Amino acid sequence: MKHHYGSNLINLLVFILGFLSLVAPFVLPQARSQLSSGASFPIMVSLILVLCLVIILLEIQTSSLDSKMIAFLGMLIAINAGLRFLENAIPGPAGFSPVFFLIILTGYFFGSQIGFLTGAMTMFVSGLITGGVGTWLPGQMITAGWVGQSAALISWLVKNLKLQGKTGEIILLAAFGAGWGLLYGVVMNLWFWPYLASNTSQSWVQGAAFIENVQHYSAYYLATSVVWDITRAVANVLMMSLMARPVLKILARFKNRFRFTHSAGRNL
């Protein structure tokens, strides 16, 4: 029960941190100036890393995460960070990215906290590897963390509809991947869109009506990002359709092996 309350608290903290960071530039002019100058960058990254550490400590208190599982998840994060490096080193179609595949499956299979951990740490580690460290990194960490965190909802849906091992399971995962393929771009644009200096029909106007800024953002998104996001969504669908089943079997095999080893150790 304590773990249940702790998990809900972590989920709430993750959402509050991300949501406040996302909306701050729109409601607090002083926050806008600090964020645009990068003054809050170390604080944001530190807060996210602390949340990741709290997730690890919380999960260690249960049988769901021991030293072997931590090593296994570290390996998944390293693989994902490596895939992102290859994505940058060998550019493919605009927006095509393989990194969300493992983030979604990890959150789906291991739960919301581990999903957030995988998403956030993938962006952090890959940012260090590729040199992609900047004011955008906290937004990438939180948004990718949300991808893995929300994948637990698909697990709940699959269990309640009794779709485990059926085609419907893959269809739901593919649809989820497609949705986040688009939504990731929508959310990430909001992290930097308020700071665009140009006074055009695509820039944010402080003090303007809400609907006017929505129209400006829509015009900006359609002009700059929609093709990338559609490509990302297609990539997620393809990877889920072709690879989700064998990868889920691998995850189940490792999880069962770790559970068996852990149980045998307690019985000795």
Protein described:
This protein is an all-alpha fold and 268 residues long. The protein has one domain (2-259): Arp2/3 complex 21 kDa subunit ARPC3 (Orthogonal Bundle). 81% of the residues lie in helices and 0% in strands. The protein is built from ten helices and no strands. The chain has helices spanning 2-27, 29-37, 41-60, 67-89, 99-110, 112-130, 137-161, 167-192, 210-224, 226-267. Helix 1 runs antiparallel to helix 3, helix 5 (99-110) packs antiparallel against helix 6 and helix 8 (167-192) packs across helix 10 (226-267). The chain starts with a helix and ends with a helix. The relative contact order is 0.12. The model is unreliable at 262-268 (pLDDT under 50).
How is this structure best summarized?
The chain has 268 residues and is mainly alpha-helical. The chain is built from 10 helices and no strands.
Please render the helix and strand layout as text.
Elements: H1 2-27, H2 29-37, H3 41-60, H4 67-89, H5 99-110, H6 112-130, H7 137-161, H8 167-192, H9 210-224, H10 226-267
Helix pairs in contact: 1-2, 1-3, 1-7, 3-6, 3-7, 4-5, 4-6, 5-6, 5-7, 5-10, 6-7, 7-8, 8-10
